[in-house]
Amino acid sequence: EQQKSTAADEGIKQLVSTLPTKPDCNSTTNLLYQYQGFWYHQFYLEHLIAAQTHFTPEPNSTILCSYPKTGTTWLKALSFAITTRTHYPPSQSPLLSRFPHDCVPFFELAPSVARNKLLVATHIPYTSLPAAAAAASGCKLAYICRDPKDVVVSLWQFQRKQKKEEDDDGDADMGIEEAFEQFCEGNSVAGPYWDHVLGYWRASLEFPERVLFVRYEELKRETERCVKALADFLGCGFSLEEEKQGIVQGIIDLCSIESLKGLDVTKNGRFAPTESMPYTIHNSSFYRKGEVGDWRNFLTEEMGARLDKIMADRFAGSGLGL
Ligand code: A3P
């Protein structure tokens, strides 16, 4: 078994070594590899390719899908709290002591933890999902997307923090202009962002009952309505009785950024989904401001308009607007 998996790993490494690469100014890893139309760091890509052949989700499971920095942690926390509420009311939720990324594992990073789970997550684009995980196979997918201007800023902040942690040299800081340029060219992790969004958008049109398309901004603005819709989608809608008991609000409060940010597991824990990951990430890095429109503090109006135009051009004819 061990030998087989080593041979498979070698095969994947060999494949990755033949792929087109680009420099990545945003990370200490330095290189992005292009695979099936998207860009990745080597470590993540090797796991993605292994998952394509080896990962089979549980029938009837739900996969929470996202591009990084679009609200993955929030969607995980809410979905986990919703689906476990009969065992754990919000005041006793495992989320109070376990990080959302540990409660709902990324199947490509932690396949053995994800096996047998009914709620898992992924950053893999729709068109590269393992065949058994696609909506056509019967899985349910909930996709969260977010205004790309806020995504690019959130990603830059996150990677900058990580880069500073990994690399003490004072020159590690890269400018937002460089990160923005890279994002607009589609050369960001799991990018191009527009293709990531479009893949799931098209799937949601093709399989409306099996693909839920959630927007971060809507979730912020109309949290209660979105949380109820999410519960319905997950197959465990709230009863009137539960609503009267304040369970919906309890879950919303539990999963708010303020609440999750203050927990010990956030302040002291680190995200390390697999031993082979070349770095770990401080849990607190996943919670920053959690606001809509923070991009205005970092990008100019012109930069914002440029990115909006790129998205509008790419989304033309798809029926999708951001
Ligand atoms: P900002 O950097 O704009 O603050 P992901 O979970 O996909 O990594 O995305 C992280 C982004 O979601 C960060 O955005 C983070 O602050 C925000 N976020 C994390 N948890 C949240 C929550 N419970 N409610 C709202 N936003 C949240």
Automatic annotation (TrEMBL):
Keywords for this protein: Transferase
EC number annotated for this UniProt entry: 2.8.2.-
GO molecular function, one term: sulfotransferase activity
Chain ranges of the Sulfotransferase domain: 61-318
Matching InterPro entries: P-loop_NTPase, Sulfotransferase_dom
Keyword set includes Cell division: no
SUPFAM superfamilies cross-referenced by the UniProt entry: P-loop containing nucleoside triphosphate hydrolases (SSF52540)
PANTHER family for this protein: SULFOTRANSFERASE SULT
Family: Belongs to the sulfotransferase 1 family.
Name of this protein: Sulfotransferase
Species: Linum tenue
